[in-house]
Amino acid sequence: MIKAAIVGAGFIGPAHLEALRRLGDVEVVALCDRTQAAAEKKAAQLNVAHAYSDPAALLAHPGLQVVHNCTPNHLHASLNRQIIAAGKHVFSEKPLCMTGDEARELLALAEAKGVVHGVSFVYRHFAMVQQAAALVNSGRAGRIFAVHGGYLQDWMLKQTDYNWRIDPERGGACRTVADIGSHWCDTVQFVTGLKIVEVMADFSVVWPVRLAARQRSVSFGAAQGNAEYEEKPVTTEDFASILLRFADGSRGNLTVSQVSAGRKNHLSFELNGSDGSIGWDQEIPQRLWLGYRDRPNGTVSDDPGLLLPAAAAHVHYPGGHIEGWPDAFKNMLACFYADVKAGKAPAGEAGYATFREGAQIMLIVDAMLQSHREQRWVKVAALT
């Protein structure tokens, strides 16, 4: 059994734990949280044997091989450095860090140390996203010339919605773009095989002042009706519209929002090619839309017998047995742990997002933030 640990027990830490337990050959031996009492309480709830409040102590746990970094954004870089320095394989929540410079540093450290490194860009691991990529790669859509779509949520719609992500010291100078726009960028780059090289971004702060409940809030949770509030200034974006240019000259546009009522987790994309279009919506993940000019449009379902081999490998049940976000999460970690078991760092295209892809997405986010501030097209900086 591979011994793993999780640092951070908020919304996403237990999702990592559940996926790891489904793999069958990974044992989560320890959990680390902000205080010893909180760590012990969460470890007991999740049936994890050991609890820590100090990451350094956790890293010294006997036999530990892999650490999952599920902390808030501002802690990602420093903890990833610690994990790499300790010689442990590292799987980091996104964003990889807070700036492009930090991203370059972390990539260099991970590659020099020879550890397996991954970043949690999960949407590429849905079966129908894999099918879309396989169709593009086989030339079925022809030459891709346009990519468009968005990622819409509503959990920050109300003025009384507040979360640590809003604070730029903890969440970063970019919020909605870095938090969910990054997922969309990774997904469409994976599907098309094209890199985003230039951006024109316009950000909007819908609530310049938010009302934060004095009681500690949790992600995606509403404050209690009798809560007391304090005013908090907001400088990070709630909504953004972004034009994109890809390396081959094709174009795209992206809309991201955390204030779109009724949209819970609506990541969607459409690719337009010379021989057809391909569209996918994460809220109906088992369907892939295929559009044509000279014959009827079609919809492909997640029946493994109907999919190309690369996509069929990501389906684990017969057609009609819907697989969703937790299953994509399991697929992602299965890819990562295949390299852990092989005892080698990823070389080239790993299937899952490595620190290299995580760093490149950070450079895209940096360019989008600069573009908004300067109100002009900005080229994405080169990774090396």
Account of the 3D structure:
By secondary structure, the protein is an alpha/beta fold. The chain has eleven helices and 17 strands. The protein has helices at residues 12-23, 36-46, 55-59, 73-85, 100-113, 127-137, 168-171, 176-192, 309-312, 325-342, 355-374; strands at 2-7, 26-32, 50-52, 66-69, 89-92, 117-119, 144-152, 196-204, 209-213, 229-233, 239-246, 251-257, 266-273, 276-281, 287-291, 298-301, 378-379. The chain has a nine-stranded mixed beta sheet with strand order 16-15-14-13-7-12-11-8-17. The longest helix has 20 residues, at 355-374. The radius of gyration is 21 Å and the shape is globular. The two termini are 37 Å apart. The mean pLDDT is 94. GO terms for molecular function: nucleotide binding; oxidoreductase activity. This is Gfo/Idh/MocA family oxidoreductase. Residues 129-278 form the GFO/IDH/MocA-like oxidoreductase domain.
